[in-house]
Amino acid sequence: MPHLKVNSPTGDVNFFYNITTPASPSSPAIDPNLPSVLFIHGEYVPQQIFEAQFSDPELRNRFNLIGIDLRGYGATGGFTPKTYTPTHAAHDLYLFLEALQISKIHIFALSINTHIALVLAATHPDLVHSLMLCSTVPPQEPEGVAAGRVELFEFWSDSQVQESGGRGLKGFDEDLLATLLKGAQQMLFSDNATPLAEAVTLVSLEYNAIGWAGTPEARETGHTFCLDWFLERRVFDVDFFSKIGCPVAIIHCEDDIAYPFGHAEELQAQLTQAGNARVTLCQIPGPRYANVLYPEILNPIIRNHILSVTEPNNPPGKGVSVVKKESLLETPFKEILAKYGYRADSSDEDSE
């Protein structure tokens, strides 16, 4: 499992990451001849949320794809301090990319962690070549959505069987945990419980049961990422947005039950009014994490956005094989997703 230790002002962090190139699903380095895309996951889930992007030959044969578990998520190690914000996370990612000697990056980010992408683009404009922001959040959390997130976290806390003293899923009440999962899946995937959505949910649960439960420090980490990042998030001003000059694609998912289309329009207006003339906005079908459910619609948007801002006729990397367009390629997430019943080479019916 590839890890990279970064010495950060907020404490050392041992990032778990994957680099996928045309030549390999798990490469030690990027192909320098190709554009690189950093995928930043959203709330509750680690990098396996991008299985449908990493398996797509239309993306894999054109770009380096980089997945990472943020601090406090997945297999990334390192203590999360009490004061840890998307601004701190953006600096950690800058140090991570610097350590990998990546000097230009495109970013695809989900949900609340689009704030990380925005901060990285504002503070390091020479590094970030373009942004793709999917399921963005408004400046402040709507009252009803905030109440829903508080309720989910209360279920998470209540479902932990304190007297067990155990880490992992053995320390949880199964009935309460089932209620929690149903609520989280409704917010992220609506009623579309596909095999991939189910597997991603269970992978996330496995990691979060260790990282966000069992000790006071772990519970505090869970509070940071499940509540603090939403309820206490930074409100960006015109001066901040004026520092983002790269092309920005804002992608809104039509069935997002938390944030309506108007919030995405507001972000587009803020960036445009701040002087960025290269901001586009589109809608796609599906719930908040539609990248899992509708990759056939989202992935071409990712591909076309990157190609529109990079030099044309980028030479392909060495070892690129000819792959049928409908074929899905192996990803670094194959083994852990298979543990929970997902196989990319089988139909939904077979997986179920």
From TrEMBL:
InterPro entries: AB_hydrolase, AB_hydrolase_1, AB_hydrolase_fold. SUPFAM superfamilies: alpha/beta-Hydrolases. Residues 35-273 form the AB hydrolase-1 domain. Transmembrane segments: none annotated. It comes from the Eukaryota. This is Regulation of endocannabinoid signaling pathway.
